[in-house]
Design brief:
- By secondary structure, this protein is of the alpha+beta class.
- Helices cover 29% and strands 25% of the residues.
- The protein has a single domain (10-206), classed as minor pseudopilin epsh fold.
- It is built from two helices and nine strands, in the order ααβββββββββ.
- A five-stranded antiparallel β-sheet has the order 4-6-7-8-9, covered by helices on one side. It has a four-stranded antiparallel β-sheet with strand order 3-2-1-5, covered by helices on one side.
- The longest helix is centred in the N-terminal third of the chain and has 52 residues, at 15-66.
- It is elongated.
- The termini are far apart.
- 28% of the residues are buried.
Length: 207
């Protein structure tokens, strides 16, 4: 009798008990997937936004250190962005530090958002289309680049400028992942500011 009782106490879990445990694990895993995906999307777009912010600062410093113009360029179609500096020796834009790529699920755009962040642009819009190289002038070639890429350009004082070299506070770059929009604006004094807004929200938040 004692031997039988000892053997009974040594028995493991029954098949039903194991199935119940596995079912609980699967339910918990299924519940956690949406949360994990949301975190993953946030990390992707916020990381890309930080990269844009960093490159805008680098473009300003590059323009000042080389006493020239530099611009942060973003492709609306290819999901890429990079810095270009005006080379006064060749009269052409020179790519610096290589091309950066947006994360999976992130692209240039504003989604369903219709209004810009407060005290930035008059109308929500990406920065102007980049102008192409023009060897006939030191600074500005007025022909627009056929790629349709947009540019946030800085002069040697770190001030954002338009096609004619006039200070402007209307430049911005926007990216979206379908759930939220992240923006990068720069005022006429050259101060760069990051923003974010959820598609279901009415107000932008500074980052």
């Amino acid at each position: 009798m004692e031997k039988a009782m000892r053997m009974k106490h040594q028995e493991g879990f029954s098949l039903i008990e194991l199935l119940i445990v596995m079912l609980i694990i699967l339910v918990i895993a299924a519940m956690s997937i949406p949360g994990f995906q949301a975190i993953q999307k946030y990390l992707r777009i916020s990381g890309d936004a930080r990269s844009l912010y960093s490159l805008a600062g680098q473009a300003k410093m590059q323009a000042a250190s080389q006493f020239t113009h530099a611009r942060l360029r973003m492709s609306l179609q290819k999901g890429t962005y990079w810095i270009e500096m005006w080379n006064k020796s060749t009269n052409q834009w020179q790519v610096l530090h290589g091309t950066q790529y947006f994360s999976t699920g992130v692209s240039a755009g504003t989604g369903t958002i219709a209004a810009p962040p407060a005290n930035t642009q008059n109308v929500l819009a990406q920065a102007p289309v980049c102008y192409a190289n023009d060897p006939s002038t030191l600074w500005w070639g007025y022909a627009l680049d056929p790629s349709g890429d947009v540019c946030m350009e800085f002069n040697s004082r770190g001030v954002p400028v338009d096609y004619w070299g006039n200070p402007t506070g209307n430049d911005a770059l926007y990216i979206t992942d379908g759930n939220s929009v992240y923006g990068l604006t720069v005022n006429a004094a050259g101060m760069v500011q990051g923003w974010t807004i959820n598609m279901n929200s009415a107000n932008w938040t500074k980052r």
